[in-house]
Amino acid sequence: MAIEFTKYHGLGNDFILIDNRSASEPRLTPDDAVKWCDRHFGIGADGVIFALPGQDGTDYTMRIFNNDGSEPEMCGNGIRCLAKFIAELEEITEPRSYKIHTLGGLITPKLEANGLITVDMGKPRLLAAEIPTTLVAANQKVVNQPLEVAGKTWQVTCVNMGNPHCITFVDDVAAIPLETVGPQFETHAVFPKKINTEFIQVVRSDYLKMRVWERGAGITLACGTGACASLVAGVLNGKCDRRATVELPGGLLQIEWSEADDRLYMTGPAEKTFVGQR
Ligand SMILES: N[C@H](CCC[C@H](N)C(=O)O)C(=O)O
């Protein structure tokens, strides 16, 4: 039987969204996700996102499969797309928040009157055991630590935003050979659950430029959890303010790491591109 889907993107980080409210398990398997995400033989996407019934008092549950079939804990651009998708399913037009259960914890996106979505992304986790990584002792933070990748020593900072991130500050993000170094970071032995890798150029203390190699998806045009992790890394290294614009190849995100509650807040768009069935 054909399955309906809606295609969304958050700054070019694109997803196939599936209405999964009638079942507690995703309607597609990880292998299906690989086929559906193929940009030549399938629909084409960075991942598949399922709107499942809520649990533990939440409105909904989000599960996501990367386009390699792996299942990450969280997705920042994806949860903005999910919020808009749900509002469409519920025929809601006025601003409202949703409590979403994810494998990375409770995440709360809020539809704003201006069409943007502000997401409470929760608190960063900074200890090596929480990333996870074996780069330093389990109870230590990973800030500005040397890591050998592709024959070069990089100074890295690691942050978990539900999913794991490794951030490196560089003078010119455009000069980074992402296709070469990305996979070698992703599968490095010090990251037992693999890693998302962000390269950051500090333009001003309130403006960062970012490129990303995503775990399970490769080069994407934007990464919401990565933008949050990168701002945290910038603050930890004394390179940026707690509120900054992050410029990604797909567009801009506004990120704040609240001093008051230690939580990250991300504001950005989500756009519907088409509907279909397969
Ligand atoms: N590939 C990521 C999940 C998607 C994250 C990204 N698209 C975002 O917007 O946060 C991972 O395996 O952790």
What does this structure look like?
The protein folds into two domains: 4-120 and 269-277, Diaminopimelate Epimerase, Chain A, domain 1 (Roll); 128-262, Roll (Diaminopimelate Epimerase, Chain A, domain 1). The protein is 16% helix and 40% strand. It is an alpha+beta fold. The mean pLDDT is 98. 45% of the residues are buried. The chain contains four helices and 18 strands. The protein has an 18-stranded mixed sheet that branches. The protein binds 2,6-diaminopimelic acid. 2,6-diaminopimelic acid binds at residues 13, 66, 72, 75-78, 163, 196, 214-217, 220, 223-226. GO terms for molecular function: diaminopimelate epimerase activity. It catalyses: (2S,6S)-2,6-diaminopimelate = meso-2,6-diaminopimelate. It is found in: Cytoplasm.
Shape: globular
- Give the number of helices: 4
CATH class of the largest domain: Alpha Beta
Unreliable runs: none
Subunit structure: Homodimer.
Pathway: Amino-acid biosynthesis; L-lysine biosynthesis via DAP pathway; DL-2,6-diaminopimelate from LL-2,6-diaminopimelate: step 1/1
Family: Belongs to the diaminopimelate epimerase family.
EC number: 5.1.1.7
Outline of the structure:
The protein is an alpha+beta fold and 278 residues long. 16% of the residues lie in helices and 40% in strands.
Secondary structure elements and pairings:
Layout: E1 4-10, E2 13-19, H1 30-37, E3 47-53, E4 60-66, H2 76-89, E5 96-97, E6 100-102, E7 105-111, E8 117-122, E9 145-149, E10 152-160, E11 164-169, H3 178-186, E12 196-204, E13 207-214, E14 218-219, H4 224-236, E15 243-248, E16 251-257, E17 264-268, E18 271-277
Parallel strand pairs: 2-3, 4-6, 11-12, 13-15
Antiparallel strand pairs: 1-2, 1-18, 3-4, 5-7, 6-7, 7-8, 8-17, 9-10, 10-11, 12-13, 13-14, 15-16, 16-17
The structure holds 2,6-diaminopimelic acid (API).
